[in-house]
Every structure is written in C-alpha cells, then in structure tokens.
Amino acid sequence: MGVVRLGVCVSGVYAAFLLWAIAQERLSAPFTSTSPHPHTSPNHQSKGDKFPSALFLNYAQAVASSLSALCYLLFNAWRMGNLHKSLAEIIGYNQLISTSTSRKASVKDVSQQNGSEKIPNGHSPSTPQGERVTVKPLRKTLPALLFQVSLFQGLAGPIGFLALRHISYPTMVLGKSCKLIPVLLLNVLLYRRKFSPHKYLVVILVTIGISLFMLLAETSKKKKGGNDSAWGLWLLGVNLFIDGLTNSTQDQIFSTYPSLSGQQMMFFMSFFTQLLLLPALIFPIPSNPLSLISHLPLPLSGTIASAPITFAKPEILNSISFIISHPDCLLPILAYALLGGLGQLFIFETIQHFGSLTLVMVTVTRKLFTMLLSVVVFEHTLTKGQWVGVGVVFGGIGVEAAMKRREMIRRTKKDK
C-alpha cells in the first residue's frame, strides 16, 4: 500500500503542476481588453495588458487550497462514517486550540507527601492521578508552528523572484536543484532528526544529477541573463534557507502532532496565508516603497533622495477591475488556483506519509521526468551531459529503492 500511495502522490503532483504551469504561463501573457483604452485610436490594435497583481493570484490559490482541503476532509469523513462529528473536529480545529498543553501519563510524577498529592511544576492536584501537564512554549504550539510555515511559504516566492533580477537563470536553476541539501541539513540541525546513512548518499547523487541535467541543457545556453551579483546570490541563499525551514518545520509538526493529517495542515496553512495576504490586498500601499526609506533618519535613509509618498489603488480593486475589463483572464485564474489547490493535496499527502525529503526529491525531479517524456513523445534530444545527469539521478533513486526493499524484507522476517 505504501508503494501504491507513493505512486498516486507522485503522479498527482506531476499531473497537477504540469497543468498548473500551463495556466501560470497563460497568466503571464497579455489579455485583450473589451473596453478601448483612452487616447488610443479605434484603428489601432492593442497588444493587450498583463494581469496586474501577483498578490491577488497567490491569495486566490490560498483560497482554492483551503477549499480543496475542506472538500477532501468532508469527503473522507463521509467515507469513514464520521460526518456526525462537528466541523471543528473534522478540520482539526480542536487540535489547534488544545495543543498549548499536553498530558503525559507518568504515575511516578505523582508523589504522596503528608497525605496529599504533590504535583510537579506547581500544577493543581485536580489533575487526574498519574498524569502530568506539560505546558509547551508558545513557539512550539501547533498554531505557532503552522503560522511559521505559512509565513515562510509566503516569503520564499517573492525573495526568489527578487533574486532572479540579480542572478542569471542557470544560477537560479542550479540553486533550486540543490534544494534537498538545506532541507536535510535543517532537519538535522534544528530538529535533531536522524537519517539513515544511505539518505545522505541519495541526496548527494540526486542533487549532482539534477544539477548536471539542468546546467547542460541546450536551452540554458540561450538564457544567459546577466552577471551574478553578491546581492543576488545572498537572496538565493535566503530563498533556499527559507525552503529548508518550511519543509523541516512541516516534518517537525507531523512528528510532534501525529494525529494531525496532511489535509488538516493544508487547510490551516492556507487559512493563515490568507490572513497574511489580506491586509496587503485591501489596504493601499506606497507606489514607490523606496520613498518610505527616504524619509527615515539619515543613517537609515542612506543616499536615497527624498521623494513624496504616494499610495496606489488597493490591489484587490485593481484586480477586480482588470477581470471586468479583460473577462478572458477569468478562466486561467480559476485554472491556476484550482490546479494549485489540487496539487497541494498530493503534496501534503506526500509530506505526511513519506516526509519532506521524499517530497523535495519528487519536485526537483519533476522537470527531469517531464523532459524524458518529451523525448519519448516528441522525439526531442538530450545532450550527453544530460544523459549522465539522468543516470546519476536514477542511481540515487535506485539506492533509495534498494534500501526500502531491504527494510521491508527485514520487517517481514521480524513479523514471522
């Protein structure tokens, strides 16, 4: 069943995000307006306008993700005969509000002194006998951890886009190909998670293989971009660090709160993401953010010339007016949001049952398998270096599969 589940998760991630990428590419192209532009001649054919707000698209995807998770949880509750439960139980809200304290059974912790119970940590004797109440630090509670990963996820994308302005495309591709390394290291350093020795070998092989495959592609020679600045490389490093924090913290949540399902985590992360994005959508923001810095005291403002602060129209109003005047953008927006939500279902299912390392391995190899499919279907060609990269990646996957098989045989013998 584990192999079948992994196959379904991988297929779901590949299919959903392949179609999602198509919708994303369509949204980056211009849309034709149904209303004529002012100061434009009727005989002049407009090339169209691009969608004005990436923030609105992120918010739409967060809404679609939370709705997808809710639908899945309700369907699963119906399938398991648990629809009699409250909605709070189904979505895991009861776990969210009850995890600031946890009870640990330990009869030794209750001692008798002068005929009365003495409870450690100064807790009241009304605590059930044989149990100790452990109060978790705020940063380790489930709401705080979920809010952290939502914040991390919201920051990673904009920082990645900003980094791409200061580094070349191949450098960004190479950095993203090495995503397995920060995920592994932060799991070990922050949360003291232990991995089998072969996991480190698999991570190294897959990282090297994907890097070779991406960097030695013929298309990468055409996307030279500019020179890599130190600022751009630093931003890329921050982006990878945040990715590692996100995935390792998700692993920690499932390890600490095993009763939380992947779809429940997905629902709350999407909900927190909406809370983070909503103020930026509905409130006007400065047209030029640097104008705020120019009004700070001299050591902070630096050499930036003082400029008047002007506020732009709220993002949500810009987006709605654009949709009204460009109705053909509505279908790509819906496809982008819904396919992203569907893909997230498979992503969180993978994290819950197989961990973030497996998920990242799936996502970083997605382009490789897409390219291999295009070789078979459209008779495209790969360079010799790319074939070497493919061989190294499959070598890493083969090591993982062999170790999994050995572990299954060992468990079967123990059961007998």
UniProtKB/TrEMBL annotation:
Keywords: Endoplasmic reticulum, Membrane, Sugar transport, Transmembrane, Transmembrane helix, Transport
Domain of life: Eukaryota
GO cellular component, one term: Golgi membrane
Gene Ontology molecular functions: UDP-galactose transmembrane transporter activity; UDP-glucose transmembrane transporter activity
Transmembrane segments: 56-75, 145-167, 173-191, 200-217, 229-246, 267-285, 330-348, 357-378, 384-403
Membrane topology: Multi-pass membrane protein
Annotated region described as Disordered, given as residue ranges: 105-132
Location within or outside the cell: Endoplasmic reticulum membrane
Biased amino acid composition, Polar residues: 105-116
Pfam families (UniProt xref): UAA (PF08449)
Family per similarity comment: Belongs to the nucleotide-sugar transporter family. SLC35B subfamily.
Protein name: UDP-galactose transporter homolog 1
Organism: Kwoniella dejecticola CBS 10117
Organism placement in taxonomy: Eukaryota, Fungi, Dikarya, Basidiomycota, Agaricomycotina
